[in-house]
Amino acid sequence: MSLRDFGVLVLVCLVWACNNIVSKIVVAQWGVPPLFYAAVRFAIVAAVTLPWLLPAPRPAWRIVAVGLLMGAGNFALLFMGFRTASPSASAVVIQLAVPFTTILSMLLLGEKVRWKRGLGIALTLTGAVVVMWNPHGLSLSPGLWFIVASAFTGSLGAVMMKQIEGVKPLQFQAWVGATSILPLALLSLATEPGAPGLALKAGWPFLAALLFSALIVSVLAHTAYYGLIQRHDANLVAPLTLMTPLMTIGLGVLITHDHFDARMGLGTLLALVGVLIIALRKNQVMPLLLLTRNRSQ
């Protein structure tokens, strides 16, 4: 990988990490309802990528399902999780997407998993459990339950995406946006009374965060990322994207004052080593891992 491409990847990972912090601030500190936030974000993404929507990939039902899973389902759960879960803990727990994707690829794609990737799965799961542990035992906060559900939803969407051929990056973003607006808007209307007023109360900072999330993260950063995985081997790019959770933890400690102790450090180390083991093995799951990481930021 050239120094230029490596610099682009570092910048992409930093943008993703910043977005995790921004999303936490929007829903937890500014009080913007998460479903409304996700709905408006995807409305902007859909508007910008509308020219790439058609022709629809075949079968159409599968791209709709993928869009709902990796858009409305994944981001709604992620933003709901950020209301109570810290970015640092979320950055580690979301790594469960990697073993989820591996296991789903075994069940749905017939992927074979040997002992090294099995060890990676075990380490990632152990690391996540260590992060979620407290002195009274394993106790997931509601926020972390949403993060776990987000990881699974995105992983299922990624595996289904593997079964669709020839979808361009911007076309993928267009379908994720288009399929997510209506369900998110309806859910927000039903469960988040007064959501537009709360968003307006947050003012210009919310608008800036919204444009950053929709345009810089979803359109520019993801498109640059897809360009990198088209030019370089997935087994080279995927391990380097572990910079994102590390940057998220650092920014979380500095900006949102996340609690980070020796237990969290051990759990983070175990989880990321497990992900690294999986990422370094040549297998079908690597493209799925990249898609999952794309949707989880």
Overall pLDDT level: 84
Biggest sheet: strand arrangement: 1-2
Distance between the termini: 23 Å
- The topology string of helices and strands comes to HHHHHHEEHHHHHHHH
Percentage of residues assigned to helices: over 70%
Radius of gyration (Å): 18 Å
Separate helix tally: 14
Tertiary shape:
globular
Sheet bearing the most strands, described?
2 strands, antiparallel
Would you report the number of β strands?
2
As a percent range, the share of strand residues is under 5%
Poorly predicted spans: none
* Protein structure class: mainly alpha
Write the SSE topology.
Elements: H1 3-29, H2 34-49, H3 60-82, H4 87-93, H5 97-109, H6 115-132, E1 133-134, E2 137-138, H7 142-161, H8 169-191, H9 195-202, H10 204-231, H11 234-240, H12 243-255, H13 262-279, H14 285-295
Antiparallel strand pairs: 1-2
Helix pairs in contact: 1-10, 1-12, 2-3, 2-8, 2-10, 3-7, 3-8, 4-12, 5-7, 5-14, 6-13, 7-14
Provide a descriptive summary of the structure in words:
The protein has 297 residues and is mostly helical. The protein contains 14 helices and two strands, in the order ααααααββαααααααα. A two-stranded antiparallel sheet has the order 1-2. Helix 6 (115-132) packs antiparallel against helix 13 (262-279).
